Amino acid sequence: SVSLDERFSYTINAKGSDLEVTVFADGQIYKSVTKINSVWQSDTFYFKAGAYLGANETNGSGYGQTSFYALNFNHNGTVTAPTQPTQPTPTATDDPVNAVDDTYATTNGAVLTINASQGVLANDTAADGGKVATAGTFSTAQGGSVKLNSDGSFVYTPKANYSGSDSFSYTAKDADGDSDAGTVTVKVADAAEQTTTPVTTTPVTPTAPTTSVRPATTNTLTGTSAANSLTGTSANDLINGGAGDDKIWAKNGSDVLIGGAGKDTFTFDTKPGSSNVDMIVDFNVADDTIRLNDTVFTKLKYGQLSSSSFVTGDKALDAGDRIVFNDKTGALSYDADGTGSAAAVQFAMIENLAKLTASDFIVI
Fold first, then answer.
1. For the chain, how big is the Rg over CA atoms in Å?
2. Where would you tag: which of 49, 72, 125, 254 has the fewest CB atoms within 10 A of its CB?
3. What is the SS3 assignment for 309?
4. Are residues 221 and 290 in the same domain?
């Protein structure tokens, strides 16, 4: 018999009403005779071409390499040995796209504008590169509207007088054309309601000092066990990432931030002030990171925070100190001129009094 990828050659002759096929393989000659119409009588076929012999699939992946052998036949039926092919380069692996669901929040009557760094693609993966979202303007599940851009940024407008949970779907694609669908949930709070939402998750952390008082909150955003991107509103929000590696943007307002399990990031990109001081409940120095946007923290240099810009205590000790962490109260402040005349401005509180160092901060 003749197997896939085995080297062989053959002749085909028409004699009378018989079509005779002779195959040379593994040192043997195999013949097969088939009856044909008389129009082919007394003729011999001649071929000089490449013949496809088979494919070697790798581990059931659906990808493999094909082999071609050059076969040379002549009129007298002499069998010639095939030439050895050049092995082709294996086909590169095609990696899938993974679109991860997102959650955002706003208030009714307020337009939610999300930039690309916080958009629907921020936590999606496309190993083959070229990650884009299918752009368009469309309606949401509860009658709102969204304009989605290819870089993942979007503008969401809730339906008039609507409050509750709204959603829309999007498609993420890569350079190879692979795609995956994700779902965006937008929690629309009633701006007229000012009820305080209690904290329902108790992280495994040290007890907070008695001087640490959590802000009263009006909105709640809760993540899942997956990696979530959670963006707060201009009101006071309770944002709980849950399990997974979460990205949390508190935005304006005095918010309560809970990363939960996983490697979480807390991003500060709004101007610090007395009405914009956020409480980080469970910061873990082994896993979590605080990100500071240099458009707001203008005296910080992009990248890892320099140790010379960080000081532990209740005030700056020299002109180069910019981030001041009071390890007794948990207050985290920004000082634009160090020991200069401008006062430090608090922007966060570390409730569990984690022992912060400069390595816990990234300037973006």
1. 34
2. 49
3. helix
4. yes
